[in-house]
């Protein structure tokens, strides 16, 4: 019998999916992110590229900024990013420089993701994918189907 961990990757990814749902409601591409340290959420964010008219306002970038302000320093060692879509190369570059310890993503991005683009993360950063992949993928698919039907 396994003991259920209340603060596992699924728990925090659900919080990231909630952020993605907020983005969806705002007409943003539904990507959400949270950053944790010691099982505590220190940053929550979602895409704001449309609202801020800023191509760099990805969920990960917003979360990095919030987390470093919370911590009072520029490095995110001992932190974990939970994000609903595999980071792009821009976000992966910022995550590299932040020295984040772990990245957990839900859905892969086989076209624009950092893996496809060959972008390097910090050598000490651990990565895992596929946590709540179906939920995150469905949200993205619904968003783009809705957008196509509006045009």
Automatic annotation (TrEMBL):
Q: Which family does it belong to?
A: Belongs to the cytidine and deoxycytidylate deaminase family. ADAT2 subfamily.
Question: What UniProt keywords apply to this chain's record, in alphabetical order?
Answer: Hydrolase, Metal-binding, tRNA processing, Zinc
The record places domain CMP/dCMP-type deaminase at 7-122
In its keyword annotation, does this UniProt entry include tRNA processing? yes
- From which organism does this entry originate? marine sediment metagenome
Q: Which residues form the signal peptide?
A: none
What protein name does the entry list?
Answer: tRNA-specific adenosine deaminase 2
Q: Which cofactor does it need?
A: Zn(2+)
- Please write the reaction equations for the catalytic activity of this protein: adenosine(34) in tRNA + H2O + H(+) = inosine(34) in tRNA + NH4(+)
Quote the subunit structure annotation: Homodimer.
> What's one Pfam family here?
dCMP_cyt_deam_1
Enzyme Commission number(s) of this protein? 3.5.4.33
An example GO biological process term is:
tRNA wobble adenosine to inosine editing
GO molecular-function annotation terms?
tRNA-specific adenosine-34 deaminase activity; zinc ion binding
Matching SUPFAM superfamilies: Cytidine deaminase-like
